[in-house]
Structure formats: C-alpha cells, structure tokens
Amino acid sequence: MFITNILLKKAKSKNILVLMESAVSGHQFTMIRERLADKLELQRFDPYIQRMCLYRERKRLRSLN
C-alpha cells in the first residue's frame, strides 16, 4: 500500500439516510440516523390509512457528511 492511499482515505460519516416503511400500508419516507445506532422502529401517522401505525427501517440509502 502506498503512503498516498493512506493520506487520501476518507473518514466514514457519522449519519446515514434510511428508508422507513409502514408495516400496514407500505407508505415510505426517509429519515436520518446515526451509523452505529440500532435499526429504527417508531410509531407515526400513516396518511394512507389515516391512523398511527408502526414504521420499520427498510434499507440504508446513503451516508451523509
């Protein structure tokens, strides 16, 4: 490995953008969480069914600076 590769290497970002999906209707939105945190699960208003329901983290979209 060359010394320039070590100097030009980027540090990993602290936050990532994740896709949240409703467990009931499939409604989706994006949210930011820390990279080292557990996967998110939260209750939020679902506009498709007009009620509160459980949203789970579906997949990681990208890292943020």
The top-level CATH class is Mainly Beta
Q: Give me the CATH fold name.
A: Rubrerythrin, domain 2
End-to-end distance = 26 Å
- What is the tally of beta strands? 4
Strand content: over 45%
Query: Helix and strand succession?
Result: HEEEE
Task: Give a verbal description of the structure.
- With 65 residues, this protein is mostly beta strands.
- The chain has a single domain (11-64), classed as Rubrerythrin, domain 2 (Single Sheet), CATH 2.20.28.120.
- Helix content is 8%, strand content 54%.
- It has one helix at 3-7; strands at 15-22, 28-34, 41-46, 51-64.
- It has a 4-stranded antiparallel β-sheet, with no helix packed on it.
- Strand 1 (15-22) and strand 2 (28-34) form a beta hairpin.
Helices, strands, pairings?
Elements (H helix, E strand, L loop, with lengths): L2 H5 L7 E8 L5 E7 L6 E6 L4 E14 L1
Subunit structure: Component of the mitochondrial ribosome large subunit (39S) which comprises a 16S rRNA and about 50 distinct proteins.
Protein name: Large ribosomal subunit protein bL33m
InterPro entries: Mitoribosomal_protein_bL33 (IPR052008), Ribosomal_bL33_sf (IPR038584), Ribosomal_zn-bd (IPR011332)
